[in-house]
TrEMBL record:
Similarity comment: family membership: Belongs to the class-II pyridoxal-phosphate-dependent aminotransferase family. MalY/PatB cystathionine beta-lyase subfamily.
Lineage of producing organism: Bacteria, Bacillati, Actinomycetota, Actinomycetes, Kitasatosporales
Cofactor(s) annotated in UniProt: pyridoxal 5'-phosphate
Record GO terms (molecular function): transaminase activity
Listed EC numbers: 4.4.1.13
Broad enzyme group: lyase
Residues annotated as domain Aminotransferase class I/classII large: 44-406
Pfam families, sorted: Aminotran_1_2 (PF00155)
Organism for this UniProt entry: [Kitasatospora] papulosa
Protein name: cysteine-S-conjugate beta-lyase
First and last residue of the signal peptide: none
Keywords (A to Z) from UniProt: Aminotransferase, Lyase, Pyridoxal phosphate, Transferase
Annotated CDD domains: AAT_like
Length: 415
């Protein structure tokens, strides 16, 4: 075991992430729905981004207490328990002074994305994303009849070219980035904000992976970038307050605790919208056209518990996943040093560039599914054939089984 993996184990001793919990028969997409994407039942799954762990015990306790009350009537998110819990999280995790008057609620991050795209773009107009691209973005943009315009991650010239097109109305940032796990630096975010402002594009920053940033990297909330570029009482210290976006540029953050605390099926998300008129319009649509005035009460309950009491669990699960990633790096390094694979800067998804091995995606998938009985996301899902996305949000034993299957599969197709 590497030093990284050993350290990770010692810091997670308070919680048990090693025990395998049988999720089969719970209607979960990860295990029970594997045939929908991979055509075969019973595969060991490393697919969509949820984890095989229970959520934090503090979250479970809060959910149980709420259920024990027994009355599950219509609920409001515009109350201090929820708003102050979010502000507490931003203060303690990001050093940001969040103005809770800017918060909005939503049924899911992708639903919020869809709503904002409908507000800020018309059919046929362009939405700029980075490639590789989270498939949820692709489905939302194309499903709304907008044009998806991909620019390679890190290619500023291509980004500027796309944003400069007259009908490019929105830049959707994935911060941190899924599937690569890339954490944007403050300088990169500033540059993208400035390009969007210059070309009149709104920015929607999806920060659902922000709480899972690994040691050595820092997530910078987009709201801070927008405010720092503004005037008056903006600036980094002021944090997340009204006071102008990047010279008035439209922007929104969409996020949820559901990813990092592993309760996405409770359905619930929230956002920060910079401009008061945009915020009012978003809420009007939610409460009227969408009929979504009442949030899911269990999601609210889970958010409050996670943000008030869940920090230690989150740090522990992140450390455990760091151990999984270190283990995979060690295995891949030993077997295929030409991959020079390094763990992601954020998240539990291992994005692996297999192109140096020259294997063909379809052939590899056939071997992984038919012979190794594992389901691992092919890169083509994200517009990047030749890559794989291996979900390591799972007990070490499963992660080891997955990487062993992958190594054997790669040996087979190369033979
Ligand atoms: C970047 C990103 N955004 C959004 C989502 C989905 O969030 P929700 O279930 O709240 O729509 C995911 C899930 O994998 C994701 O990776």
């Amino acid at each position: 075991m590497s030093e990284g993996a050993r350290n990770a184990v010692s810091t997670t001793a308070r919680y048990d992430f090693d025990t395998v919990i049988d999720r089969r028969g719970t209607w979960c997409v990860q295990w029970d729905g594997v045939a929908d994407r991979f055509g075969v039942d019973g595969l060991l799954p490393f697919t969509i981004s949820d984890m095989d762990f229970e959520t934090a015990p503090e979250v479970l306790a809060a959910l149980r207490a709420r259920l024990d009350h027994g009355v599950l009537g219509y609920t409001t998110w515009q109350q201090d328990d929820f708003l102050s819990a979010v502000a507490h999280w931003y203060g303690t995790r990001y050093g940001a002074d969040l103005d809770t008057g800017r918060l909005v609620y939503g049924p899911s991050v992708l639903s919020q994305l869809s709503q904002l795209l409908q507000m800020w773009t018309s059919e046929g107009e362009g939405v700029v994303v980075h490639t590789p691209t989270y498939d949820g973005f692709r489905k939302a943009v194309l499903g709304l009849g907008r044009e998806l315009r991909g620019v390679p991650l890190g290619d500023t010239e291509a980004l500027e070219r796309e944003l400069a097109r007259a009908d490019a109305k929105v830049l959707v940032l994935c911060s941190p980035h899924n599937p690569t796990g890339r954490v944007w630096t403050e300088a990169e975010l500033r540059e993208m904000a400035e390009l969007a402002r210059r070309h009149g594009a709104a920015v929607i920053s999806d920060e659902i992976h922000a709480d899972f940033v690994h040691d050595g990297h820092v997530h910078v909330p987009y709201a801070r970038i927008a405010d720092a570029a503004g005037v008056g009482d903006g600036g980094v210290e002021a944090g997340v307050r009204d006071g102008g976006g990047p010279a008035g540029g439209r922007w929104a953050v969409i996020t949820s605790a559901s990813k990092s605390f592993n309760f996405p099926a409770l359905t619930g998300s929230y956002g920060i919208i910079g401009d008061p008129a945009d915020r009012a319009e978003y809420l009007r649509r939610m409460e009227t056209a969408e009929g979504l005035a009442s949030p899911a009460v269990l999601s609210l309950t889970a958010h409050i518990a996670a943000y008030r009491e869940g920090a230690a669990w989150l740090d522990a699960v992140r450390a455990y996943v760091t151990g999984n990633l270190a283990m995979v790096a060690e295995r891949l390094d030993a077997e295929f040093p030409e991959l020079a694979w390094v763990p992601p800067q954020a998240g539990y998804l291992a994005w692996i560039d297999l192109r140096p091995l020259g294997v063909e995606e379809e052939a590899l998938q056939r071997v992984l599914i038919e012979r190794e009985k594992v389901a691992i996301m092919p890169g083509s899902v994200y517009g990047a054939p030749g890559f794989l996305r291996l979900n390591l949000g799972c007990p070490r034993s499963k992660a080891e089984a997955g990487v062993s299957a992958l190594v054997r599969g790669l040996r087979t197709v190369r033979a």
